[in-house]
Amino acid sequence: MTTWHEYIQQQAHIPEWPYPVRYGEERVIKTDVLVLGGGIAGCHAAINARRQGVKVTVLEKSNTRWSGNGGAGVDHWLSACANPCSQVSPEDFTTRALIDSGGYDCGPLRYVNAKESWDTLLDCESMGVQIRDVHGEFKGAAFRDENTELMFAYDYQSKFDLRVYGYNMKPSLQKELRRLGVEILDRVMLTSLLTEQGQQGSRVIGATGLHTRTGEFYVVLARAVVLATGLPGRLWVFSTEYRATFRDPNCTGEGMAAAWNAGAEFTRLEESVPDSATLAYIAYGVGNAHNTWHGCPIVDANGKEVPWVDRDGSDLTTTEERFLPSPGQPYMVGHGLRIPPTYENHVKQLAPDLPKRISSGEFALPLYADLSRLPEQERRAIFGLMVGNEGKTRIPVYDTLTKAGFDPDVDMLQVPVMPPGAYVHSNSWAGMAPPQWRQWASGGVVVDWDLRTNLTGLYAAGGAIFGAGAHSSAASSGRYAGRKAAEYARIAPDTQPDLNQIATEKARIYAPLQSSSRSIGWKELNAGICRVMQDTCGQYKTEEALHLGLYLLQGIRESEAGKVYASNPHELARAVECLSIITAGEAVIHASLARKASSALLNFMRLDYPAIDPPEWNKLVTLKQVEGQVTPGELPTDYHLRPPFAPTYEENYQQHCALEQ
Predict the structure, then answer these.
(1) CA–CA distance, 523 with 472 (Å, rounded to integer)
(2) CATH number assigned to the domain covering 499-640
(3) Cα 622 to the chain's mean position, in Å?
(4) Which residues of the chain are in CATH 1.20.58.100 domains?
(5) Measured between alpha carbons, how far is 642 from 640 in angstroms, rounded to an integer?
(6) Element (H, E) at 448
(7) 402-445 residue pLDDT tens
(8) What distance in Å separates the CA atoms of residue 444 and residue 587, rounded to the nearest whole number?
């Protein structure tokens, strides 16, 4: 039987690869700060490191103009606790967030976000991003402050989540990178971290990369490195033909795998969340009454409106109540922070028992989002401002529907069907997933108050850090980590790379070009990895199945991965991605084995350890890989407030910021 690649090679009319092919050629670059990933976190890291006067290089697999999970735009900016209208302090917000998450959150990351989010947004404004209603489009609206022209989301009383016109966020950041003279290496994917003397666990002194169009090999030497490669994907579910993902499919875990192989310490890797994948509706594009569409009225097939309720389950009688805290509630934590709703922070929502009420016949399917029932300014804020600027909806929803004649004043959008048993604040709004379909949640490297990992010279930002939040978290942590990396780079000594480490990495990534069997393509390899993860590390886990998963992934690494082949640089990059995906899967399974208790807070279910969140397991399970052996460990959830750190968030922040002055 002829394979697809053999068929392609036999066809004379198939166009040749349009770029020069330079397999094996090396390009060596020296810099002060190397930023791995040119997404939101990476761009802010590079900009702020360069402002410290050091030489900065960005390595980005795609194109920095639109790349990353936040690359296509943003409509709301969370946790801007320092904005002039905010009624919530950074210390109070961070303390509440850590309590509500059961401690399974990164305190330094969360506080940096709360403390610097507003200043980071002002930076964006100076680069050309509109963050205010400067044209008076929403003048007089309940969510608008007349003095500052700022607009707020979710909680109109506490005013720490902002609505912004962020469609041009990435082009503005790229323009600033170029203005500052940052070296941008677009279309170069990270393959490994370089360490002093080539030893695992030693100082990080650079990275290697592969050009995805020419196949050229890059060696970038640096005094400091910032890991900003985002959340890994394509680990449980993979499809190239039909995608409805919320995340950039280019984020496949190269940063996670490179840091893992270098000896970095990780935590929260056992957590995963449902992924509707190919069954999903467009995220926030079908009348989802939460997040971007918060407050939108939902009606059934007969026009009967579904009630909105407060944290006590009481029906709300007015639209205004949906955007204000309940009596006695200090404030509502906005959507997108991956913090489970609690009695204290719960945002107003549709009736949580809606699936049962549909099943009983009280509401008739299908359901619809009826924007016409909102006040005119609220209606335009949702469908014009937010849907029109959020990257996941700007083109597929706002642009498409508007060109097709959709009028939010009179038309309705059908809402996904929610079968009995689905929670309305879960992924049921995007489409239901089988229990074995998962996606990476919030696992990442452990960091200190400098956002530095356990490896000297390696800092982290955005989705690379455990507990990572939304767009503003990526931006503010990148801003902070870039400064810290530049601070270290100014005093770090020069060092020479280990030539054997480079040669070994070069042989590894070019291996698919030398495959003798030429029997497996990268798509088949990726699909096989996903099937192992589905079968052995889905929603319900057991010791036996997890060990089987490790056995099968090791088998794939030793067998099928050795047979994968590539016909051009693009396919070579995709094949190398699959090797990182295997590493990510192995790390997740090791973490799942290490936590011998179930956890509702971590979406983690061990059938052989069914006790939910027992007190003795209220800790961070950590992992490091040393010379091929995985070493589990643990940290208290408040490790960042224990010696040698100060006992409060603000004290720690001031102590570490003082070093920059």
Answers:
(1) 33
(2) 1.20.58.100
(3) 20
(4) 499-640
(5) 6
(6) none
(7) 999 999 999 999 887 654 433 333 444 555 678 888 989 899 99
(8) 11
